[in-house]
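Check out a protein:
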Amino acid sequence: MDDYQYEREEDRSALWIKETAKEVQKLKFTVENNKDQLTSGSATGGCCPFNWDLFGSSCYYFSSLSLSWNRSKDWCEKEGSHLVILTTNEEWDFVTHHTMPNPFWVGLTDGRTGRWEWVNQTPYIMERRRWMPGQPDSWTGHGLQGNEDCAQLHSSGRLNDMHCSKQLRYICQKHSLRG
């Protein structure tokens, strides 16, 4: 390597170090600012744990791991949350936007009472427009014991009843931390 190439390499390295130092300073400021907001209780709009998304007054976790409905429910509860309960059109839109193109478990089941209810035992008011055509159908031709007692959110944003042992991604929901 001649002297000219060596000097250019040094210049590039120095520039990279300078840019990296700027990025580190920006990150440090962001972390300190978030820490100050959390400890002073002045966070505006609420805040969520790492890898959770804020919408309204709730935090949402969209898993990349697939579990059965019951294991998904347990995982959410372990995190101080529950499988998602969808109550507004805006919330349906937000969740659907984040789930495409994969199906996800939601907190809706008819396994306890034979009637559809959310995981907090609030009865689900049947809205046909929220379900895939012909659903729910409690299909038993899957070769598994029992009916389809758990609801999944299809990539279309509509519900489908599914056997609870099926492994799908899941959505957890909990209240955001508010200032």
Residues 53-175 form a domain with the Mannose-Binding Protein A; Chain A fold (CATH 3.10.100.10). The helical segments are 3-40, 69-78, 89-99. DSSP finds three helices and eight strands in the chain. Residues 29 and 79 are 28 Å apart (CA to CA).
